[in-house]
Write a structure and sequence with these properties.
- It is a single chain.
- This protein is α/β, with parallel strands linked by helices.
- It has 4 domains: about 1-90, no CATH class; about 170-315 and about 415-525, Rossmann fold (3-Layer(aba) Sandwich); about 330-405, no CATH class; about 535-595, no CATH class.
- The chain is about 30% helix and about 15% strand.
- The strands form 7 sheets. Strands 8-7-24-9-23-22-10-11-13-12-21 form an 11-stranded mixed β-sheet, with helices on both faces. A 3-stranded antiparallel β-sheet has the order 14-20-19.
- It is globular and about 105 Å long.
- About 35% of the residues are buried.
């Protein structure tokens, strides 16, 4: 029955709306988009057919209401795929509660303001934990028309080993080659970076340590996202950062068990399953948690994706002293130290099975199911070259000599990284503490971990991006390793911790990897902030302690803020607002604000309402490299 209905619909569309067909094949994607946007032409065609009308419309009073969700389910029924023209045939991926694939979802989830959440209170110690107030909004496509446009920047500063410098229009600095710390919402900041030619498509490494969504309360990150919201939150940011990666670039994502496997599926859809490289296991803790309910959680995952695996090359790790300890020279070979390796191979070849006679006359054959790795002729050549070793007494199974000079100058990394090799969370906390910075991070990352990641994926002078900058570990290590960094952070601690840490690195601090990198200091960076518009009201809403303050804010917002056009201000005067809890009042007040005006758009630099100084205008032009 449904198949017949489907055929009726396609035939009607073929006659009355041929635009829904491509090369005479039904384009299901176009019809889905039309239904999603309530396209009147499509709805009128459906209404002409009584069966379609009865199936996909419901009468409410004298009004017919389109059952959009049921129509989209009907349209995407897998039994109809044979007859459809669609790019999503046989697609595997995550779906939301409406049955739509996340990669098809056109909504953008934005959560404001700190680490994309609103936090109640201002604790300065981890143990003073309180519940977070979490606001998020789902914005449809027609509500984000200018949301991702580049934003104007303000509070420009320049830091080097001589201290802090205020920039002006006459500043003679090549912005395209400077390290960058940006304060502001990371999703919007990523879209700003996409407009800078020296950065877009040039970033060799993106490392992020995002909120884990593990339900553990911490003040600085909202780790209590609803699962589906968290996934869209991550999808938005991964979509945004993908275009920043160079063709030879890669992204490394630190995550724990709770969301690692969902994150991999999302990342497969964004970066391509074929570009997945590996999942590294990092031993983040060195002690057992006997108070754990089930297992002691001692590891994180680090998902690694290349922008294009065919163009990406992984660097080698330096050979360790322990790796070289296996090489010796018991027979005083003039070619130097060597190590012996098996002469047999697991995949047998009949032609390579033959007897070998040792120096003492002992006969050797490869084990059953194996063969020698060389032909008999090649074996005799190796004997003449003194490459075959039978042990000190000449009675051992033959092995081939591999000289250290022939070994590649480095080692392939393995996928299990122990704390002894790259550090653990407690090491990282001590590193931050040694810098005399606030101890507000429960799980910072050790410098040795970032040292290895940067060493494997970049060369000196490459761009390294971290858009969950936190304590600034990625930026600090990148600077010590002579890479260029971009750090994005929205929390106010970006000034007191992130910036302060990099200043100390510039001045030659000797913690973390400074000794291994022979770091003596140097470098510089530019600091700037996305210029707030409506965002400043959200900051004030977050800080409000009672309804009276919120009412006063509302009156101020009516005079100065940009409201969503559908807001009915009369509802504020009927007493309903006072019946809400403080948290609900904050939520409502935040929802009134037009999210397209959270920050000042770059296109409005000269707008007198924003009172941008001449210096600010010219510095923005230099930053974005526009005339």
């Amino acid at each position: 029955m449904m198949q017949n209905l489907y055929n009726e619909m396609t035939e009607m569309l073929r006659k009355e709306a041929p635009g829904f067909f491509v090369n005479n094949k039904f384009n299901k994607s176009k019809v889905s988009d039309a239904a999603y946007s309530y396209n009147t032409a499509l709805l009128e065609i459906i209404l002409k057919n009584e069966r379609l009308k009865k199936q996909f419309f419901v009468e409410a009073g004298k009004t017919l209401v389109f059952k959009q969700h049921e129509f989209l389910q009907f349209l995407n029924n897998k039994s109809f795929l044979k007859d459809s023209y669609t790019e999503f045939k046989n697609q595997i991926g995550l779906q939301d509660e409406r049955g739509e694939y996340y990669h098809e979802n056109k909504e953008v989830v934005l959560v404001w303001p700190h680490k994309d959440c609103v936090l109640e209170g201002g604790q300065d110690k981890e143990e003073q934990k309180r519940d977070e107030i979490f606001y998020n909004e789902t914005l449809a496509p027609d509500e984000i028309t200018i949301l991702f446009a580049p934003k104007a920047l303000t509070n420009f500063k320049f830091y080097d080993n001589k201290g802090e410098h205020t920039l002006n229009e006459k500043t003679d600095i090549d912005f395209s080659q400077q390290n960058i710390i940006l304060k502001g919402n990371n999703l919007l900041a990523l879209h700003c970076l996409k407009k800078i030619k020296s950065i877009a498509g040039q970033v060799k490494l993106i490392y992020i340590d995002p909120p884990y969504n593990n339900g553990i309360q911490t003040f600085h990150y909202n780790d209590k996202f609803n699962h589906s919201t968290w996934m869209v939150f991550m999808k938005n940011r991964l979509d945004a950062c993908k275009t920043l990666l160079a063709k030879e670039g890669s992204i490394w994502i630190n995550i724990d068990d709770k969301e690692a496997h969902y994150l991999k599926v999302i990342s497969d859809e964004i970066f391509g399953r074929e570009n997945f490289v590996t999942s590294i296991i990092w031993q983040k803790k060195h002690t057992r948690s006997n108070d754990a309910k089930y297992f002691s959680d001692n590891h994180d995952h680090i998902l690694v994706y290349a922008k294009n695996k065919n163009s990406w090359q992984l660097n080698l790790l330096p050979r360790s002293e322990s790796a070289n300890e296996n090489y010796s020279n018991p027979d005083n070979d003039e070619r130097g130290v060597w190590a012996s390796q098996p002469l047999q191979v697991k995949t047998p070849s009949e032609a390579y099975i033959y007897e070998i006679t040792g120096p003492t006359g002992k006969i050797f054959l490869p084990p059953k199911g194996r063969s020698w790795q060389f032909s008999h002729k090649r074996y005799l050549e190796l004997v003449v070259d003194k490459r075959i070793y039978f042990g000190e007494d000449g009675n051992n199974v033959p092995r081939i000599k591999k000289f250290l000079t022939e070994v590649q100058d480095g080692m392939k990394p393995i996928t299990i990284w122990t704390h002894a090799e790259v550090g653990h969370n407690q090491d990282a906390k001590e590193e931050v503490k040694a810098l005399q910075l606030s101890d507000i991070f429960s799980t910072p990352k050790p410098e040795r971990l970032l040292e290895r990641i940067i060493e494997l994926s970049t060369q000196e002078g490459d761009w390294v991006l971290d858009f969950f900058a936190g304590s600034g570990t990625t930026a600090a290590v990148a600077l010590k390793m002579k890479r260029k960094f971009i750090a994005l952070e929205q929390m106010d601690y970006v000034k007191s911790i992130t910036v302060h840490r990099i200043i100390k690195v510039i001045n030659g601090e000797q913690g973390g990897i400074s000794q291994s990198q022979i770091w003596q200091g140097g470098g510089s960076f530019i600091y700037a902030e996305l210029k707030c518009d409506n965002q400043r009201y959200i900051d004030d809403i977050e800080k409000a302690k009672d309804s009276k303050v919120l009412k006063e804010l509302y009156e101020q917002m009516k005079k100065e803020a940009f409201f969503r056009i559908e807001i009915d201000h009369e509802k504020w005067n009927n007493g309903e607002f006072e019946k809400l809890t403080l948290e609900e009042q904050k939520q409502l007040l935040c929802e009134c604000l037009d999210k397209n005006h959270l920050y000042v758009n770059l296109s409005e630099l000269a707008d007198a309402d924003y009172k941008m100084s001449r210096d600010e205008i010219e510095l923005n032009k230099k930053f974005y490299n526009i005339s």
